[in-house]
Amino acid sequence: MSTATDNVGLELIGLNKVLGGRTIIENLDLSVKKGEMVSLLGPSGCGKTTTLRMIAGFLIPEAGKVILAGKDVTTLGPDKRPSAMVFQNYALWPHMSVFKNIAYPLKIRKLAKSEIEKRVHDALGLVNLMHHKDSRPSQISGGEQQRVALARALVQEPDILLLDEPLSNLDAKLRVKVREDIRDLQRRLGITTVIVTHDQDEALSISDRIAVMNDGRIEQFSTPQALYDEPATEYVANFIGSLNRFNGDFAEGQIQTGSNVVGIRPEDVYFSAHQVPGSHAATVDLVVPRGHFFEVYLSSNDQKIRSFMSSEIPQVGDSGYMRISKALIYKDGKLVKVA
Amino acid sequence: MAHTENKLNIQTSSWLIRLFLSGFIGFMALFILGPLFWLAIRAFVTEWTFPNMLPEGLTLRWWKVIADDGSLLEAIKNSLIISPIVVLISAVICLPAAYAFSRYEFFGRKTFLIGMFAANAFPKIGLFASIATLFYTLNLMGTVLGIIIIQVLGAIIFMTWIPAAAFSAVPRNLEDAARDAGASKLRVFWDITLRLAMPGILVALVMSFLAAFDEAQGTYLVGVPTIYTMPTKMYALVLNYPVQISAVFSLLLAIPSVLLITLARKQIIGGQLAEGFQIK
Fold first, then answer.
1. Which of residues 42-61 of A touch B (CB under 8 A)?
2. Count of C-beta atoms within a 10 Å radius of residue B35
3. 3-class state of residue B5 by DSSP
């Protein structure tokens, strides 16, 4: 029992939050292991930021508990919690230098000057910003500001690191690099981390586990691979990756009439000129190049279906055979069968 | 061919614009600085009347008159004591109010904000007349306290509206970040909110000081004949002294304004506070 709790970095139990008369979060449970990196993923308005702000202490839940590193912090203010947050637009203090921004949390903790100096320098080294220590936030680039915000959080040696859409203000190229840097740093320091994002690519590539949120609830909480391969609900299947969706059932390798919902990943749809067991006649309607793969629109038996192909790309109008290797069957939005 | 013609046109028009602009700037400079210049000359010359192109002679006599006249010195002293007190009192009353207006939603918030404007929208003399009746019953007529109250009334609008806007302009997530870093609410206010709102508060302090320093109507009504400040003394000066004395007095009256605006300008436009607001 004690080993189980020792291993828990963050635990949310039955959280409820009402804002402006509207229930934002309803009975939310989440357990994050020590040293684990977890994403809260969902569209805007799903309650992911509200959840993060409850973990940080900016919002107090109407019901439920927030347990950080084994300590109940539900009613503590943000200044009393062992958490550190990186804000969406970094929230660096414009009237302080980079050094002073990072030193501020330590100054508040009344550390000795030499100790502050040492720890700030360590943090600056960690994010490669030594050369900017005397700059003002307005004098450095967005990516650098982001790293200062990260250093300011890490210098506090928090039990848990909270990241609120930390990459959304960076351009696409930089985003990929910074997210790798963050992941690398998180692994090296072994720090429990919760990151809020609406970007599935980001979540899939950076997290140990992802909590997909919808309407104030967690739809599914699993590893990226499990989320993708066996999405527990239709919502998750739609939100993560691409999906062909049909009303009906799946039998004998094709869509049949029925009362359920069938979801098929485009990469599980194969097309070839030759018939193989389980394949059905199909024609090619449209071929769209997508860089490293092609998006091929097929019709078969009055059904339109999309396929991602990377070799032996057919021409528009070609006739051939289509094979579906995997289908997800949902009943009332819940996964009932993987065929 | 058409090309060169076009170029020529642009050159002529830019030349015209420049001529017009310099003419306009010259006119504005004359319009604003001209009277001040004339005032400054007046303060240092003996006599200068219409047909004469040049003044009769230079003198410091008028400055000596003021230095020797106890009642004039008294007025200067009163002004220099009362105005800072007014600024201090209005800051103590209004800055917390400004913060509340900016950060909290409470009953009557809008009414108060608009009300402050409304009080300034009507001719003040009517307001002062009714205040005077009240002051008579409270024995505040002819007292320093009465003058302070009157001048604080005039400073309230500057001390509330400008700092309220300054507090509102401080991004909330900068405060959140400081809370997250471990700062108490009071510490956040001191280290972040107040620091970032400081340029606005400085402007408000300067404006209230000038408003208090220049206030004449109410101060005259309440203070005269027991207490004179520099502006109310001007009335007596214009009527009873040679015109050069008024010129000297006007220059003295302008000194705090010029001094304050110069100092504040450096703080607001120049220093690190401006960087916080990203204006340079």
1. 56-58
2. 11
3. helix
pLDDT digits (tens, 9 = 90+) for A54-81: 999 999 999 999 999 889 999 999 999 9
Q: In the prediction, which pLDDT does A93 show?
A: 94
Q: What is the 3-state secondary structure (H, E, C) of A78-139?
A: HHHCCEEEECCCCCCCCCCCHHHHHHHHHHHCCCCHHHHHHHHHHHHHHCCCHHHCCCCHHH
Determine the pLDDT at residue B274: 46
Amino acid at position A86, single letter: V
Q: Which of left, alpha, beta for A224 (phi over 0: left; psi -120 to 50: alpha)?
A: alpha
Low-confidence ranges of chain B (pLDDT < 50): 1-2, 271-280
What's chain A's Rg over C-alpha atoms?
24
**C-alpha span between A213 and B53 (Å, rounded):** 86
d(CA A140, CA A70): 38
Between residues 43 and 102 of chain B, which touch chain A (CB distance below 8 Å)? none
Backbone CA torsion sign across A324, A326, A331, A337: positive
- Nearest Cα residue to A127 out of A105, A101, A154: A154
- State which residue of chain B sits closest to A85, comparing Cα positions: B180
Q: Would the pTM count as exceeding 0.90?
A: no
A87, two tokens = 């804000």
Chain B contact probe: residue of A49, A59, A88, A95 with most B CBs at under 10 A: A95
How many Cβ atoms sit within 10 Å of the Cβ of residue A289?
9
- Regarding beta strands A160-164 and A192-197, do their DSSP bridges make them parallel or antiparallel, or are they unpaired? parallel
Residues 6+ apart with CB under 8 A from A258: A247, A248, A249
Give dist(CA A215, CA B153) in Å, integer: 52
Residue among A94, A164, A90, A96 at smallest CA distance from A127: A90
Residues 6+ apart with CB under 8 A from B89: B148, B152
pLDDT digits over B147-205, tens only? 999 999 889 888 998 899 889 989 999 999 999 999 999 999 999 999 999 888 988 89
Q: What ipTM is given for this predicted complex?
A: 0.84
Burial class (CB in 10 A: 0-12, 13-18, 19+), B278: exposed
Q: Which amino acid does the sequence have at B250?
A: S
**B203-to-A110, B156, B245 alpha-carbon distances in Å:** 34, 13, 32
pLDDT, tens digit, 9 for 90 and up, residues A206-222: 999 999 999 999 999 99
Upstream peptide bond of B51 is cis (omega within 30 degrees of 0): no
Compute the nearest-CA separation of B149 from chain A (Å). 36
With CB atoms and an 8 Å threshold, state whether B174 touches A91: yes
Minimal-distance CA residue of chain B relative to A86: B177
Task: Spell out the residues 6+ positions from residue B238 whose beta carbon is closer than 8 angstroms to its own.
Answer: B246
State the virtual CA torsion across A263, A266, A272, A275 in degrees, nearest 10.
-10
Q: Is B155 helix (H, G, I), strand (E, B) or coil?
A: helix
Q: With contact defined as beta carbons under 8 Å apart, do A70 and A6 qualify?
A: yes
Nearest alpha-carbon partner for A306 in A243, A239, A263: A243
Res B258: pLDDT: 84
Distance (Å, whole) CA A48 – CA A24? 9
